[in-house]
Write a sequence for this structure.
């Protein structure tokens, strides 16, 4: 650790600290002042839900199929979109090409996926092997069972409304992202 970082750490460590009760009061005052807390934001609620669902799925798919989070997502997306290029797969996953390529390589080594180089030398086509297709079907059966549990308390009208709202939020979030990317 450099001298500057060490000095900053010492300076921070020597500062008087507020009690957690005092810190909570300050946080509550700030939240009241601006009229919201981070946990009230739609993005916070959606991210929290997505994280819980992803963690649960990862535990199930690791236990049942021996797949990591990246691997089960690759199997699911290739099963849905095959044949798919590495670039398109990385975009679908929201990961960089390096992470996606390592995940694909692990699945190719396990003979669950094929990576075919195009004749023109421009990119790679990724598809499932027969074993990979069987795994995809089992993975989707498990995912659909989990989905049924999540939607169990909703009637058909509520489910339809819920999916419309999710689609609308997704479209708005994409629009906001594009605006930020072009700013």
């Amino acid at each position: 650790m450099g001298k500057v970082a060490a000095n900053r750490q010492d300076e921070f460590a020597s500062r008087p600290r507020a009690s957690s009760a005092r810190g909570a009061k300050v946080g509550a005052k700030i939240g009241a002042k601006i009229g919201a807390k981070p946990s009230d934001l739609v993005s916070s609620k959606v991210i929290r839900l997505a994280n819980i669902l992803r963690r649960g799925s990862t535990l199930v798919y690791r236990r049942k199929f021996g797949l990591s989070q990246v691997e089960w997502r690759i199997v699911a997306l290739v099963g849905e979109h095959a044949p798919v290029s590495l670039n398109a797969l990385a975009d679908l996953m929201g990961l960089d090409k390096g992470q996606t390529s390592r995940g694909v390589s692990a699945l190719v080594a396990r003979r669950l996926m094929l990576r075919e180089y195009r004749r023109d030398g421009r990119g790679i086509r990724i598809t499932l092997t027969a074993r990979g297709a069987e795994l995809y079907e089992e993975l989707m059966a498990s995912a659909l069972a989990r989905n049924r549990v999540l939607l169990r308390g909703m009637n058909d009208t509520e489910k339809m409304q819920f999916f419309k709202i999710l689609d609308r939020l997704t479209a708005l979030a994409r629009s906001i992202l594009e605006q930020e990317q072009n700013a």
